[in-house]
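Milestone 3.1: sequence recovery, worked example.
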């Protein structure tokens, strides 16, 4: 309730519904982003394995993942387009003044989006129609297009956090725009690689989690083993790297956005030997209620020394920093993200230890239970990362250059609330249809796999490149035929 009251008091009455609408659409769209960015990479990695090792199960997994990739991309078109419109409709003050400076990022994302759409269409069309290796090479640019789209969006967001590449004229409008400096801001590198790694490990854990559930339910054939092992290995290798990169990002925030860092760590007054709080709540007077206090740790994390001075929230006037409630929200999101990352590192080490000792998957059912939950936990961490980034920048929409209240639309609040209700209803129907399609695909695939004679079901059951030839080899791929239980 306190948070709602503070938001209602922060700026024009349109601010609260505009924020809620933007937050809802961004929070739902971000759930699809890991698959748009990283699923093409996982699919092509599986595809390459299938061709290189003449592995029919790998080829079948690649084809099925490509179908999921296409459905996800179609849903992402809707949610991403809504977000694009909302920037102009909800925040015309920002786009009108600063669009010429940071709009290049959205342009890059748009070109990457259309390129990715074309490449997905070619890749899907290529199954059963192109020579195997030609098909693979035509799909290879897909991950690059996805990374380019991510670069455009993160470049725009990094600019909002550390605006550069312009000078202000006498009326306060940006002139003499330097696009190179506007794109390559101090936070671009840390934000981009942190984001990319998060997308890879999240997609890896979610995909592996599907097969972990199947493993727990007794489907322990080679098909499920491979479907689990490849994406989980990619995610497990990425997780410790992401943990280190995340620590670097936090330190970059400490240097370039000290007030945001103070909010994330609940630092009220500038000081040395600053303690770290695990959770806890900041009160309006700066005191901390609850949580676990670890002496000196915040200074140690920021500068590797207890003598490191950490800037506090009171270093700037109250109207130029997050409120106590906003700081608590940022702090909880940051702590939850860090805790999930730490648990995932332990899970990755468990997996690595068993593989090093026995060259096999862990035998414990608890490992697969944890693996099944890892995808959902990763999605929660992604949401927490964006909460930290966006709420921690308050009250600025462009850090230290424009407030949210200056950028918000003049549309009547009632219209914005109505728009939010419509968007929620549409998104519930959209995601319901998305899940229904995925479940229907899963049911069809299981029916085909269980068929004693797969030929009437579809050539896909044998090979994505056509039915097997009379001698048992593949008509186009030249690889041996396998069943769900292993090589036949």
């Amino acid at each position: 309730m306190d948070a709602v009251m503070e938001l209602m008091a922060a700026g024009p009455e349109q601010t609260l519904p505009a924020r809620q609408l933007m937050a809802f659409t961004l929070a739902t769209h971000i759930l699809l982003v890991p698959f748009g960015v990283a699923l093409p990479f996982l699919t092509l990695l599986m595809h390459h394995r299938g061709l290189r090792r003449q592995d029919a199960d790998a080829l079948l997994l690649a084809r099925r993942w490509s179908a999921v990739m296409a459905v996800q991309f179609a849903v992402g078109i809707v949610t991403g387009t809504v977000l694009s419109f909302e920037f102009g409709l909800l925040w015309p003050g920002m786009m009108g003044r600063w669009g010429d400076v940071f709009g290049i990022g959205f342009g890059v994302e748009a070109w990457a989006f259309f390129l990715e759409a074309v490449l997905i269409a070619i890749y899907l069309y290529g199954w059963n129609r192109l020579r195997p290796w030609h098909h693979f090479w035509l799909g290879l640019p897909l991950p690059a297009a996805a990374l380019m789209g991510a670069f455009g969006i993160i470049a725009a967001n990094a600019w909002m956090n550390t605006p550069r590449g312009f000078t202000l004229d006498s009326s306060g409008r940006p002139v003499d725009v330097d696009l190179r400096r506007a794109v390559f801001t101090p936070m671009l590198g840390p934000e981009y690689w942190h984001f990319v790694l998060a997308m890879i490990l999240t997609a890896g854990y979610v995909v592996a989690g599907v097969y972990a559930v199947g493993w727990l339910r007794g489907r322990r054939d080679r098909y499920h083993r491979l479907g689990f092992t490849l994406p989980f290995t990619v995610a497990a290798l990425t997780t410790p790297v992401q943990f280190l990169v995340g620590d670097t990002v936090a330190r970059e925030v400490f240097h370039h956005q000290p007030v945001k860092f103070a909010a994330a760590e609940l630092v009220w007054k500038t000081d040395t030997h600053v303690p770290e709080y695990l959770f806890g709540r900041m009160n309006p007077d700066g005191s901390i209620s609850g949580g676990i206090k670890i002496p000196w740790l915040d200074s140690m994390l920021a500068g590797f020394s207890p003598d490191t001075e950490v800037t506090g929230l009171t270093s700037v006037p109250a109207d130029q920093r997050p409120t106590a409630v906003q700081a608590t929200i940022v702090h909880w999101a940051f702590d939850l993200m860090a805790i999930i990352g730490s648990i995932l590192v332990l899970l990755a080490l468990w997996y690595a230890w068993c593989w090093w000792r026995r060259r096999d998957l862990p035998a414990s059912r608890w490992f697969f239970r944890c693996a099944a939950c890892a995808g959902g936990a990763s999605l929660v961490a992604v949401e927490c990362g964006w909460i930290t980034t966006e709420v921690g920048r308050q009250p600025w929409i462009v850090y230290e250059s424009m407030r949210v209240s200056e950028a918000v639309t003049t549309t009547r609040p009632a219209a914005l609330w109505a728009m939010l209700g419509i968007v929620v209803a549409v998104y519930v129907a959209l995601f319901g249809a998305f899940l229904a399609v995925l479940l229907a695909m899963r049911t069809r695939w299981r029916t085909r796999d269980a068929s004693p004679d797969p030929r009437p079901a579809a050539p896909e059951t044998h090979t994505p490149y056509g039915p097997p030839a009379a001698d048992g080899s593949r008509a186009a791929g030249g690889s041996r035929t396998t069943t769900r239980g292993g090589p036949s």
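The chain is about 70% helix and 5% strand. Residues 454-488 have pLDDT under 50 and may be disordered.
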